[in-house]
Design a protein that fits this description.
By secondary structure, the protein is an alpha/beta fold. It contains 19 helices and ten strands. Helix 16 links the parallel strand 7 and strand 8. The chain is globular, with a radius of gyration of 21 Å.
Length: 376
């Protein structure tokens, strides 16, 4: 796959790492070229250097989206990570595969641990954990006033994702209230993690096991529509390999963002006109950004910054390996929002990253945090 790279440089203009650091050696083209040399056996690479190369990728997939040759640099990096996982890779896998046990307790602990007691090596990671729970959160400001009958009586599975299931129950409750208002019958489904971050971190086998489990949940339920409210989860779900082409098409067509279902809901905004909102467009949202459409419709003129093409700097396992570089990307993201007061997004990872890194006087969270109790 790396041999298909023609070194055209299209990826250079979209890579957040290059934009934040001006270091082309961190970009996709350099990684693809180096992976090609490694595959050819042209150059040796020490365990240490291979691990460093594997660590320097945010997994945003912007390079893949613009590559005319179909080169998947994040996939190449994931393969390197699989061969050279190291301690940080093990820690990330442990964190993701034990979400039910670890996430809530560790996020609460990180929220209450003084900065002076946070180890320098893992301080940025602990700060990000604190953002997962975001205990103060955003104040409900968007109130559903009336619901359409478009989805009344329809049966759907809800893929809530790990963050909503284990640390952000208010997201889940807000989503269930919206679905209830729409008249959707939510089918019980014991989904596991989407596996996207595990796959990106190089743990393909563990990710594949989760994928197969989630597909079986869908099949057992009769292959209904699946509603999600995390863009990264939805991107991972859509990429699942199914049994055949027909099922692949069924699975892809079954995926729906919650914001797509809520477009016809009439909302009223109950917040001071002086509060300025910004919307963060996640890297994995794809071409159709239903969350952005919903926020623009619901917030109207109060949404002063929308759809800026900036990565939040979450980075997955890279946040453990190169937190300083992730911070540079994150700073550029916040700079793009200017004088906004509140930033909303539709990705669980982005919400955690932005909430934990918000400058003084600013707040960030998932758009579901803005949704209040429906008017009865």
């Amino acid at each position: 796959m790396s041999g298909s790279c023609i070194l055209c440089g299209k990826c250079l203009s979209v890579c957040p790492l290059i934009k934040a650091t001006n270091r082309e050696e961190l970009g996709p083209r350099a990684k693809a070229d180096l992976c090609r040399l490694l595959e050819d056996g042209t150059i040796p690479l020490s365990e240490k250097n291979a691990g460093e190369l594997a660590s320097m990728c945010l997994g945003c997939r912007r390079c893949t989206n613009v590559c005319s040759q179909g080169v998947d640099v994040p996939g190449l990096v994931a393969a390197l990570r699989s061969e050279h996982p190291g301690f940080k890779g093990w820690l990330w896998k442990t964190w993701l595969t034990n979400a039910a046990v670890l996430w809530s307790a560790s996020s609460s602990a990180a929220n209450h641990l003084p900065d002076s007691l946070k180890p320098e090596r893992f301080g940025p990671f602990l700060k990000m954990l604190a953002g997962l729970k975001g205990e103060s959160g955003l104040r409900p400001a968007v109130i559903p006033a009336s619901f359409p009958d478009s989805y009344k009586g329809k049966k759907m599975l809800l893929f809530a994702g790990c963050t909503a299931n284990y640390v952000q129950g208010r997201w889940l409750m807000a989503a269930l209230r919206l679905l209830d208002g729409l008249g959707v019958e939510v089918i019980p489904g014991d989904f596991k993690c989407c596996g996207g971050s595990l796959k990106s971190a190089g743990f393909a086998d563990e990710a594949a096991s989760m994928q197969e489990h989630n597909l079986d949940v869908w099949r057992s339920a009769g292959k209904p529509d699946v509603v999600t409210f995390c863009t990264s989860c939805r991107a991972a779900l859509r990429a699942y390999p199914c049994n055949d082409k027909a099922e692949q098409e069924e699975w892809g067509a079954a995926q729906h963002p919650l914001s797509e279902l809520t477009r016809e809901i009439e909302f009223s905004v109950s917040i001071d006109d002086s509060v300025r909102f910004g919307y963060h467009r996640p890297c994995h949202v794809g071409k159709a950004d239903a969350d952005g459409v919903l926020m623009r419709a619901a917030l109207g003129s109060r949404l002063v910054v929308s759809g800026e093409e900036q990565c939040c700097g979450f980075g997955g396992v890279m946040h453990l390996a190169a937190p300083d570089v992730c911070a540079q990307v994150n700073t550029q993201c916040w700079d793009s929002f200017g004088e906004t007061d509140v930033i909303v997004t539709g990705c669980a990872a982005c919400a955690a990253r932005l909430a934990s890194s918000a400058p003084e006087g600013k707040r960030a969270g998932h758009w579901l945090e803005l949704i209040g109790e429906p008017v009865i």
